[in-house]
Design goal:
This protein has 895 residues and is an alpha+beta fold. It has 4 domains: 31-55 and 201-357, TIM Barrel (Alpha-Beta Barrel); 379-463 and 608-733, Glycoside hydrolase family 3 C-terminal domain (Rossmann fold, 3-Layer(aba) Sandwich), CATH 3.40.50.1700; 466-507 and 515-605, Jelly Rolls; 765-894, Immunoglobulins (Immunoglobulin-like), CATH 2.60.40. Strands 13, 14, 15, 17, 19, 20 and 22 form a 7-stranded antiparallel beta sheet that branches. α18 links the parallel β27 (672-678) and β28 (694-697). α6 (158-172) packs parallel to α8 (237-246). It starts with a helix and ends with a strand. Keywords: Hydrolase, Signal. Residues 1-20 form the signal peptide. This is Glycosyl hydrolase family 3. Pfam families: Fn3-like, Glyco_hydro_3, Glyco_hydro_3_C, PA14.
Length: 895
């Protein structure tokens, strides 16, 4: 009886407690998110406010606030969070010129992200990269091919970047293709008809503003004297559109300064432009470590202390800090550097964002939480990755119609360092695919006995064959076991373990941790495995480490760089091995400050001669050379010890000489060569246009890239990709990398002769454009998001032209429309304003219509220093590339 009474009392107490909790306004889902945020804000202490403004936001138990991670990645698939679907890099997806397909891709990405986040939530411990705020898309304009992070962007054009960026944000945030909120399709409906409309995820437009390298000096670099025209016509349009047309939830401020003020404390950009002029209601997050740059010696130098830096950032409107400087927020408030009211302004935006996600509400009321884990790396998503890979491959050259290849009766040899490299295909900021099809594997689905000859590495005339696959852990699992400690002495309990199943290549570039739960700096690791050789040979243990390492083989320390601080130390240690004799391999590593790098592999090195290579090629009908570069050479703030690369950027844009020599040799020997180039951006390949009959730009094509490349090579897919960047002939044709003005940059201003122009892309058929015609259409109305007004699109036009498929097979053409103001001598040569993908059967002819609203004619007016439609004469160009469009031109007078 006593037990029953006790149980009843407990139930009543729980019920009363729940009822009391329901009375708290911030827990009432019938209230607006703003009202809920205001109530919760009033209950927080200053210390709690500080914690909620950090990217790793801990739970606040007394108020029922769950933990939250603001920093998550989804550049081209959910990143750094275990097994997922790995789509092609964004530059590859931009080359599809298919924003409809891109919207489907990021709808799939957001499905996987929600399912992953729900799994983490159920585990009771949400780690970094496991929450609902995703710092993508990167909509910076790729002004210079030397920038290592260009692979993360959607190219060099403001309009194309805008179209693709809108598709990404709408897909991530669970909005319709035109930016309207939507309910979760195919999952449970909200429990109550009064339930709020929840967003699926928070997307983030980055990096604001005027950012596109270099990587090596970004913590101190100042963009100054930038013409207002370049700012408003080139660097800002995509940001403005994502704010006003897609209601993007977050904007990330960049590392560098503009006119002396760091982007993350730049009041002109954050307050005046972003909030006052554009009406942005979302939150601003710092890039990781950017607030440190305010006061760390040798960087921006705008603050003397962390508290002062915190006050500067929050004062300008930076709401979330990725880093640890905001820990000084209480000090900044107490010393009067910033008011608590200003802090509340920022924190309120964060709370509203979390309420919009349903982060404080029961799962049954949030439909997006019902997305099942079965969507993760599902067949449907993998097929979508392959479709996008197919559409983004660009046929640059096809002399004598060598492509498509024949799978029967043709002897094919595959060569090159990227042919059998699965990791290269993943690009940067990727997750882990459950499987990857390499380009070699894809080709062998058509030609089973296709011979593979590596021929060279990316940058050297030698061949390195990895033997990492012969390593096993103590329990027999493939690979090496990694154990991590959050100190540099390997003391105490480990914080994480992992299995390394491929050659180790870890770094904290881009503020990336080695494993969930491991410190960004000041940590140590041990990698252990048993190496069992298959034959007697001399191998090399290849390592690259910063700060310190020990290599221990069978208990003997054979290399030791453990004392002091060492910048990246390279080791290439020869070892003699005996077939079947196991060797115990142990690598100890520690890291103290700044950059962390750990690279390890066991390889067989040798340098083949030309006669050896030609003998191996033999009487092959065609050599498919798969080369280019790799994300291991270009990327964010990297340490690369190869000539031609600096900090993740490139100092030249030519194909590495080692690969060039192989193709020259093949050409001299009379071999027909197909060059498949893998890179994140443009490569200057002038000799390759002579040494290879056909050139295919395959980018970093994702986990299903091997199938996609092979389908194009053998004609199962007719290529339709178009270049989102200009391919130049030489770095000598470019302005200084530090010059942010657009003069002589991109197709819009470049006056020289290109190798392959922006928008270029061949097909296995040919297309013919008819003369375009233009007519005025009825004025339209368009509501601008975040503004209580409507803009009339007076003087809108309808552009029409015929498009014919003159070949004998079906194909898809991307018709491109460019505009130029004729009396604007300082303006762009031409600017993309519309495009449309059209599929035509062999011999088919279609009449194509493209809408050109009044905004299509908007540009910089130097008389008023504003963006507006300047009355006057305009040229309209139509064609299959920026160069071809010059052949079909009409003029129109716009009032």
């Amino acid at each position: 009886m006593k037990k029953q009474l006790l149980s009843m009392a407990m139930l009543m107490a729980m019920s009363l407690s729940a009822s009391a909790q329901q009375l708290l306004p911030y827990q009432n889902t019938n209230l607006s998110v703003e009202a809920r945020a205001n109530d919760l804000l009033s209950r927080l202490t200053l210390e709690e406010k500080m914690k909620l403004m950090m990217d790793t936001s801990p739970a606040i138990a007394r108020l029922g606030i769950p933990q939250f991670q603001w920093w998550n990645e989804a550049l081209h698939g959910v990143g750094r969070n275990g097994f997922v679907t790995v789509f092609p890099i964004t530059m590859h997806m931009a080359a599809s010129w298919d924003d409809t397909l891109l919207y489907k891709v990021f709808t799939a990405v957001s499905d996987e992200a929600r399912a992953k986040a729900q799994e983490a939530k159920k585990s009771g411990n949400i780690k970094r990269y496991q929450s609902l705020s995703f710092w993508t898309p990167n909509i910076n304009i790729f002004r210079d091919p030397r920038w290592g992070r260009g692979q993360e962007t959607y190219g060099e054009d403001p309009y194309l970047t805008t179209r693709m960026g809108l598709a990404v944000v709408n897909g991530l945030q669970g909005q319709t293709f035109d930016g309207k909120p939507m309910s979760a399709p195919g999952v449970l409906a909200p429990a109550s008809s009064q339930a709020p409309q929840y967003v699926k995820l928070l997307a983030c437009a980055k990096h604001f503003a005027v950012h596109s390298g270099p990587e090596w000096n970004r913590h101190s670099f100042n963009v100054e004297d930038l013409p207002e025209r370049d700012l408003w016509e080139t660097y800002l349009p995509a940001f403005k559109s994502l704010v006003q047309d897609a209601n993007v939830a977050e904007v990330m401020c960049a590392y560098q300064r503009i006119d002396g003020a760091p982007c993350c404390s730049n009041a002109r950009y954050e307050r005046q432009i972003l909030r006052d002029e554009w009406g942005f209601k979302g939150l601003i997050t710092s890039d990781c470590g950017a607030i440190n740059d305010f006061y760390v010696p040798g960087r921006h130098g705008t603050a003397k202390t962390p508290a002062e830096a915190t006050a500067q950032a929050i004062g300008a409107g930076t709401d979330v800090e990725c880093g640890s400087v905001y820990r000084s927020l209480p000090e900044a408030v107490k010393t009067g550097m910033i008011s608590e009211e200003k802090v509340n302004e920022s924190l309120k935006r964060l709370l509203i964002a979390r309420f919009r996600l349903g982060d404080f509400d029961q799962d049954k009321n949030v439909p997006w939480t019902q997305i099942p884990s079965s969507v993760i790396a599902s067949k449907a998503h993998k097929d979508l990755a392959e479709k996008m890979a197919e559409e983004g491959i660009v046929l640059l050259q096809n002399r004598k119609n060598l492509l498509p290849l024949k799978s029967a009766g043709m002897k094919i040899v595959v060569m090159g360092p990227n042919a059998n490299d699965s990791i290269m295909q993943w690009g940067n900021y990727s997750g882990y695919p459950t499987s990857t099809t390499t380009i070699l594997q894809g080709i062998r689905k058509y030609v089973k006995d296709a011979k593979y000859i590596p021929a060279c590495t990316l940058t050297r005339n030698e061949v390195s064959e990895s033997r990492f696959n012969l390593l096993t852990s103590a329990d027999g699992s493939k690979g090496m076991k990694a154990t991590y400690w959050n100190n540099s002495e390997m003391k105490g309990e480990p914080v994480a373990t992992a299995m390394m199943t491929s050659p180790i290549n870890q770094s904290n570039g881009g503020n990336t941790v080695f494993a969930p739960g491991v410190n960004l700096t000041d940590f140590s690791a041990r990698y252990e495995g048993v190496f069992t050789p298959e034959e007697d040979e001399t191998l090399n243990v290849r390592m690259g480490c910063d700060d310190g390492y020990r290599l221990i083989i069978d208990g003997d320390t054979v290399a030791n760089v453990w004392k002091g601080r060492a910048r990246v130390q390279m080791l290439n240690k020869p070892i003699s091995v005996k077939a079947g004799k196991p060797m115990k391999i142990q690598v100890d590593y520690f890291q103290k400050t700044d950059m962390a790098v750990m690279q390890f592999d066991i390889v067989k090195n040798y340098t083949p001669t030309e006669s050896q290579l030609l003998a191996e090629v033999g009487d092959a009908d065609v050599v498919v050379f798969v080369g280019g570069i790799s994300p291991s050479l270009e990327g964010e703030e990297m340490k690369v010890s190869e000539p031609g690369f600096k900090g993740g950027d490139r100092t030249d844009i030519e194909l590495p000489q080692a690969q060039r020599k192989v193709m020259e040799m093949l050409h001299r020997a009379g071999k027909r060569v197909v060059f498949v180039n893998c890179s994140g951006s443009a490569i200057a390949m002038v000799p390759e246009t002579e040494n290879a009959e056909s050139i295919l730009q395959a980018w970093y094509p994702g986990e299903r890239g091997g199938e996609a490349v092979a389908k194009v090579l053998f004609g199962e897919v007719n290529p339709s990709g178009k270049l989102p960047v200009t391919f130049y002939k030489s770095v000598n044709d470019l302005p200084d990398f530090l010059d942010y003005t657009m003069k002589n940059r991109t197709y819009r201003y470049f006056r020289g002769e290109t190798l392959f122009p922006f928008g270029h892309g061949l097909s296995y058929t040919s297309y013919e454009y008819g003369k375009p015609t233009l007519k005025k259409v009825k004025s339209e109305e368009r509501r601008v998001k975040n503004e209580e007004r409507k803009m009339k699109n007076s003087s809108a036009y309808s552009l029409s032209f015929s498009l014919s498929n003159k070949g004998n097979r079906e194909g898809t053409e991307v018709a491109q429309v460019y505009i130029r103001r004729m009396d604007d001598a300082e303006g762009p040569i031409k600017t993309l304003k519309a495009f449309k993908r059209i599929t035509l059967k062999a011999g088919e002819k279609q009449q194509v219509t493209v809408s050109l609203p009044r905004q299509s004619f908007e540009g910089w007016d130097s008389q008023t220093n504003t963006m507006r439609v300047v009355p006057g004469k305009y040229q309209i160009f139509v064609g299959g590339s920026s160069a071809d469009a010059a052949k079909n031109v009409i003029e129109v007078k716009v009032k």
